[in-house]
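Q: C-alpha cells for this one, please.
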Amino acid sequence: MAYGLKNINVLDLRPSTGIGVAIPFSTPAVFQTVYTTKEQLKYNLINFLLTDKRERIFNATFGGDIRKQLFEQITMDTLDNLDTQIRSGIAYYFPNVIITKLTFGGNLTQNELIVNFSYRINNTGESDNVILNLNGQ
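A: Here is the predicted structure, written as C-alpha cells:
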C-alpha cells in the first residue's frame, strides 16, 4: 500500500520560532513575523517580483524587473519577454518552486499591470498564488 508522505521543513516543526518578515511593512511595530516556510517563500517571491535587476547590492541579476516595464510601451512582445524573464529568474533563484500559472492583465494603455502568479512548492506539494497590481502613476 502506498502512503502519501509529505515533506515538512524542520523550521516548521517549531511554530513559535519566527522565520522571517512579512511584506508590506504595515504593522505598528513595522515588522510582522512569519512562522512558516510556506509563508516566507511567498514573501520572498513577492520580493523577487518587485525588485528590479541591479537594485540589490552584490546580486545584480536578482529581480523580476516588472516595475521597469511600467514605463515602457506594454505590448505582447513586452509581456512575452517579461514572462520569460520571470520564469528563468524563478527557476534560478527558487529551484523548489514550480510555476503553474503566470498571466498578465490590467489596463495596458494606462500602464496598469496585474501579475497573477500561481506556484507549487516542489518538495512539499503545497500550492499558493500571488497577485500583484502595479501601475505607473
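A few notes: The mean pLDDT is 83. The radius of gyration is 17 Å.
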